[in-house]
Amino acid sequence: MYYYASPRRKENLLLKLSERSSPMAGKEMKNRGGKCLKEVHIVSEALKTLYRQKLLPLEKYYGFSDFHSSSLEDADFDNKPMILVVGQCSTGKTTFIRYLLEQEYPGSRIGPEPTTDSFTAIMHGEIEGIIHGNALTVDPNKPFRKLSPFGTTFLNRFQCVHLPNRVLESISIIDTPGILSVAKRKISRGYDFPAVIRWFAEHVDRIILLCDAHKLEISDEFSHTIMALRGNEDKLRVVLNKADMVDSQELMRVYGALMWSLGKVFCTPEVLRVYIGSFWSSPMRMTDNRKLFEQEEEDLFAGIQNLPRNSALRKLNDLVKRARLAHAYIISSLKEEMPLVFCREKKKRDLIYDLPIIYSRIQQRYQISPGDFPDCAKMQEQLISHDFKFKGLKPKLLAGLDELLNTDIAKLMPLLRQEEDQADKLLVQGGPFLGSHSRPFTEGNPFNHYGSNGESDHVSDEEWVVSKDKPKYDEIFYNLSPHEGKLSGTKVKGWMMSTRLPSSVLGRIWKLADVDRDGMLDDEEFALAGHLIEVKLEGFGLPHELPAQLVPPSKRQRKNSGTEKRDND
């Protein structure tokens, strides 16, 4: 936040990192609270302690929250990784979330008109329910207490949904209102929308910016929203959604137009990575670029799946970035320039106008990189309304910050390496994330065959609901030329792909239908797969576990032995 390490100190820091690279260093280190850092999850606890003891006092002393983000609380360190979903109206934000969760959340609506008018935090909970914004800002277990300054109008448009969902056991998702188009820009929301987006961008682990292949215009509010994301480009992922609704030639033109529009707003020399696809469970309109869409989805979801693994590192990086900001030197320099009594207002105006010169002076005096300074224009705007009752440099606080950056952070690195060794336990599970060892799309038989198919442990003598449609599926089954009464994955895959459903959805259908886990489908399992495909094409969701009434009759008697075999595997 207020400190910059000189080149010599940087060399010392690198030496300490190399000297403390063994796992024993993390086990032996103790923080001032007397706790020994022995386990991976203690990394967040150590960051919390270091922040409270060495960084927070400095933030309070120099009024950091008056100019930048608010102070951090325990929930900011303990919270699961969060994903912020942003985009213009009707670009598929809520549909994208439903595609991730494979179920709707309470209060969600999907339509061509602007349907999402609230900020909704979707989090895991054993009991489904909704908590409204005013209650969220007083809950110490939620990382939203610092949102209260945005006012009652915003809090009335903010809610938290609890949902028993496996994906939400590892991450939380923030759904946002659609960004208004040019025609609707004159309508006031009643709160500072870009400022709220900026607050969330600073606190989340991943930002998904959704664009529609048919809506490439950049409205004023869209431009202001993108500007609010500046400083968090490392978290940003741009997605060109609904790409299956245009053919290959049009898609090439749409992609080029989107890159041109975004380049004007972001103003960076680097080219943004844009992920192309159609993130919904409905059949694709045009399948020319299906393979491309699947590869793009695989790359995007692989990053999301790794968020819990990288969460501690992200929190550490954000803490270091916060600590390096040269706020203390700016405040102390303004303190030195201000007169005690006379002509304070005139001097205040002069100092605000000359702030770029003050920045240059601080850079030369303390050898601070220009990248460690806050945005000059924004700082000038903040200073206009400030009373300029500042404080000078306090060596004791800066010495504590020196120790934080050069010693304490180095001691946490071995613990972060241990966390990487346990990466398989920290990946997002459920939904389109088909397993801890596989990405959303892997080469398999035929889609992604492995592990338990998740069928229900309770099997009864209920009538099989697929029976009435089995003759229809039997005709298709025997036309595919089964071998010894079964179809291989290769033969079934072609027929399933003809439905145009996404491969992630077809992969789940295969897992549910292959009850005996032999990598092939008999006539009953094939009929079950056909039934599940029809259910999905009619707009319904797939079961997470195979209900008793869907288990084929011939598999019910062998169910217990099959379960025992899966446990042994």
TrEMBL record:
Stretch list, region Disordered: 546-569
Domain of life: Eukaryota
Cell wall biogenesis/degradation is among the record's keywords: no
Signal peptide stretch: none
GO molecular function: ATP binding; calcium ion binding; GTP binding
Membrane topology summary: Peripheral membrane protein
Protein name: EH domain-containing protein 2-like
Species the sequence originates in: Sinocyclocheilus rhinocerous
